[in-house]
């Protein structure tokens, strides 16, 4: 393993980011970010609050625009005036810290909505797919309930199932366990580990370092809008090269 593996050479590229810069007004939130992700790679992104982690992954499914650089997802160019937003959203699933389930829909309806509306899948097929993924996240018995009737861990597993119902090629996770009570973290991480083992391409913003060690191909450390350091997990944790990485790891480990 090279000291700073940028892209795994044996995998086709699925995300290519080069020279990406973004501003919120006068504030530059992303500074010349370069990142290449191979199909099936598992990437963990960590770094202090406000370092641009969410903004970076939100750019990858076009929830944010950017001003400079290039960003291509499975051959879809996201710089072309926003016209490819729908195409990229169909390929990229996203799971947020706050679940973002529709409160007035049942678990099953939450999972059926996007396939029916966006993909024009028929109702019975959408239901079949929803039950398949609810079974995969091990809560098929909760299908008829409303989100508020579920625990946080169950709600987050519904959010994962809902994203999978669109059969994405890439899954983005933005601190998926940060809003959970400690006893519910494991059930969500176990679901994510299962996805990783099935070969899903995943970018996970998380500070769950046990998860990073277990499943990540690469760990990326961001600070002040830049990728400061990246490496395979063992080298990243055991021998961080940059002073800012060392200081950050010293605070969280
Ligand atoms: P992280 O996820 O690493 O905590 P974010 O990407 O959420 O960081 O935010 C990076 C910086 O950009 C923060 O300083 C944040 O306040 C700022 N920021 C994020 N979203 C907006 C926005 N919509 N408008 C203005 N500033 C924002
Ligand atoms: Mg964030």
Task: Provide the descriptors you would attach to this structure in a database record.
alpha/beta, 10 strands, 9 helices, 4-stranded antiparallel beta sheet, binds adenosine-5'-diphosphate, 253 residues, 36% helix, binds magnesium ion, 6-stranded mixed beta sheet, 25% strand
Brief digest:
This protein has 253 residues and is an alpha/beta fold. It is 36% helix and 25% strand. The protein is globular and about 50 Å long.
Model description:
- The chain is of the alpha/beta class and 253 residues long.
- Helix content is 36%, strand content 25%.
- The chain has helices at 53-60, 85-89, 107-117, 123-136, 152-164, 182-197, 209-215, 233-238, 243-252, and strands at 13-24, 27-38, 42-46, 68-73, 76-77, 92-95, 170-174, 201-205, 218-223, 226-231.
- The chain has a 6-stranded mixed sheet, with helices on both faces.
- α3 (107-117) crosses α4 (123-136) and α5 (152-164) packs parallel to α6 (182-197).
- The longest helix has 16 residues, at 182-197.
- The chain is globular, with a radius of gyration of 18 Å.
- Residues 1-5 have low confidence and may be disordered.
- The structure holds adenosine-5'-diphosphate and magnesium ion.
Report the structural category.
alpha/beta
Helical amount: 25-40%
Number of helices: 9
In round numbers, the mean pLDDT is 94
Order of helices and strands: EEEHEEHEHHHEHEHEEHH
Distinct small molecules: adenosine-5'-diphosphate, magnesium ion
Unreliable residue runs: 1-5
Strand order, sheet with most strands: 6-7-8-3-9-10
Radius of gyration over alpha carbons? 18 Å
Query: Could you give a short account of the major beta sheet?
Result: 6 strands, mixed
Ends: how far apart? 24 Å
Pfam families: ABC_tran
GO molecular function: ABC-type amino acid transporter activity; ATP binding; ATP hydrolysis activity
Protein name: ABC transporter ATP-binding protein
InterPro entries: AAA+_ATPase (IPR003593), ABC_ATPase_HisP-typ (IPR030679), ABC_transporter-like_ATP-bd (IPR003439), ABC_transporter-like_CS (IPR017871), MetN_ABC_transporter-like (IPR050086), P-loop_NTPase (IPR027417)
